[in-house]
Design goal:
This protein has 309 residues and is mainly α. It contains ten helices and three strands; from the N terminus they run βααβαααβααααα. Helix content is 74%, strand content 2%. It has helices at 24-51, 58-85, 94-127, 132-135, 138-164, 181-185, 193-226, 231-260, 268-292, 295-308, and strands at residues 12-14, 91-92, 173-174. Helix 1 (24-51) packs antiparallel against helix 2 (58-85), helix 3 (94-127) packs antiparallel against helix 8 and helix 7 runs antiparallel to helix 8. It has a three-stranded mixed sheet with strand order 2-1-3. The radius of gyration is 21 Å and the shape is globular.
């Protein structure tokens, strides 16, 4: 359904996975399962890092906030997606679209910043061990987390307000399962040039730049690891970084492909699959990566299970 060119849009239609027809119900159950696992896994990490004194370090302080952001990030998207998968006419009001876009940008940017802070923490621990206590004291850690949320709030507010001050006339069909910035921006009737420039700037500033900083940190870490004399020492250092590096690769890899891929080479189905992966699937992997590959977290989990069971 399209509006007439002279009629202001009063609702948006989220096509989402409507083209998948008979596959919508299996997608619903699959997404619901992933969402529940994401909530359970990240809640477990939050609980362990709060209750176990052995995990009272900067790395697990950042990990706890990363898990909080993951829960809020997926909750911004998944419940609405599940409702739309069961609906034959998925619509959302402009106010609802604005709210979803705002929180999606907020938590997405906050996650990028937190992953960068975690990379700096590993860099300080491995490359500057004598100064680690000073570089990563409590005030610095709280400041980094606060700055991550502030960046997300500022970006989400700026983008959402700018886009929804534009007039929307004509088509109201969003070819996505959420109110992401570009799909909604392209429906605006006014001049969208500055909106697209702003979106590119945000992509460069909060996706490409953090990814580059993380890569730089790990290059320095790799150089330091190669300077460690014993093989056992190298394995210990590498094990503390491998979990974070896997999460970074999953999150930034799919996000970069989705947002930096040329529009001419993209298809709606491929865009949906990429978006589904980095918004829904990746947050589910993080708890498994940080628990199954981390001896300290597994040790804390075993201690709590032993104590209560």
């Amino acid at each position: 359904m399209d509006n007439d060119n002279g009629t202001a849009v009063t609702k948006f239609i989220l096509l989402g996975f409507s083209d998948f027809g008979a596959y919508q119900l299996p997608i619903f159950w699959g997404v619901l399962f992933i969402y529940l696992v994401t909530l359970l896994g990240n809640s477990l990490i939050i609980t362990l890092t709060l209750l176990d004194s052995a995990l009272n370090t900067p790395m697990y302080f950042f990990l706890r906030h990363l898990s909080i952001v993951e829960i809020l990030y997926t909750t911004t998207i998944v419940p609405r997606m599940l409702s739309d998968l069961l609906s034959s006419y998925p619509v959302i009001s402009p106010a609802g679209c604005f709210t979803q876009m705002y929180f999606f940008a907020l938590f997405g940017i906050a996650e990028c910043c937190l992953l960068t802070a975690m990379a700096y923490d590993r860099f300080a621990a491995i490359c500057r061990p004598l100064h680690y206590a000073t570089l990563m004291n409590r005030q610095v850690c709280v400041g980094m987390v606060g700055a991550s949320y502030l960046m997300g709030i500022t970006t989400g507010t700026t983008h959402s307000i700018f886009i929804f001050t534009l007039p929307f006339h004509g088509t109201n069909i969003v070819h996505h399962f959420l109110c992401d910035i570009l799909p909604v921006l392209r429906l605006a009737s006014g001049d969208t040039f500055w909106g697209e420039v702003g979106n590119l700037a945000v992509t460069l500033l909060f996706i490409i730049t953090p990814f580059a900083l993380i890569l730089f940190s790990y290059v320095r870490i790799l150089i330091t690891i190669l300077g460690v004399a014993s093989t056992q020492g190298r394995q210990k250092v590498f094990s503390t970084c491998s979990s974070h590096l896997m999460v970074v690769t999953l999150f930034f890899g799919t996000g970069t492909i989705a947002y930096m891929r040329p529009q001419a080479s993209s298809t709606q189905d491929m865009d949906q699959i990429l978006s589904l992966f980095y918004t829904v699937v990746t947050p589910m992997f993080n708890p498994f990566i940080y628990t199954l590959r981390n001896k300290e977290v597994m040790g804390a989990l075993k201690r709590k299970l032993t104590k209560h069971l």
